[in-house]
Write a structure and sequence with these properties.
The chain has 128 residues and is mainly α. The protein has one domain. The chain has 4 helices and no strands. Helix 2 packs antiparallel against helix 3.
Length: 128
């Protein structure tokens, strides 16, 4: 018996934020300074993620590697631990011949990047 079934996988991952890192920023910089830093970092992160995707589509691996290095740095600064880890995965896989794993990591970077940005925007109104 042959069964024709199509299964659609829903990929939904929650971003993990290091609230302790955000709290450190608020203590060190004060609420206004921390808000300014986080807002600037979010803008830079959104641009960096878009550039990485653009370079990936164009097959420009050196630019992908440079871009994800920047994503890691920004993500760590504002407590986006999951995003930083996934960006490091992309960086490591970009040096291998495992194209499937690299493309899967790039897709995950896009999903985690989007959910991370939304998570930080959502908590900005919550006092630390």
């Amino acid at each position: 018996m042959i069964v024709n079934a199509i299964v659609q996988l829903t990929l939904d991952e929650k971003a993990r934020l290091d609230r302790d890192q955000l709290e450190v920023l608020y203590v060190q910089l004060g609420p206004a300074g921390a808000d300014k830093l986080v807002n600037h970092a979010l803008e830079e992160l959104a641009v960096a993620l878009a550039r990485v995707e653009k370079h990936h589509r164009a097959g420009r691996m050196i630019d992908v590697q440079k871009g994800v290095k920047g994503v890691v740095s920004i993500a760590q600064q504002i407590g986006m631990t999951t995003l930083a880890r996934v960006a490091r995965d992309v960086q490591e896989l970009s040096d291998t011949t495992d194209g499937a794993a690299y493309c899967a990591a790039m897709a995950r970077l896009g999903r985690i990047g989007e959910s991370s940005l939304m998570a930080v925007w959502d908590i900005q109104d919550i006092p630390v």
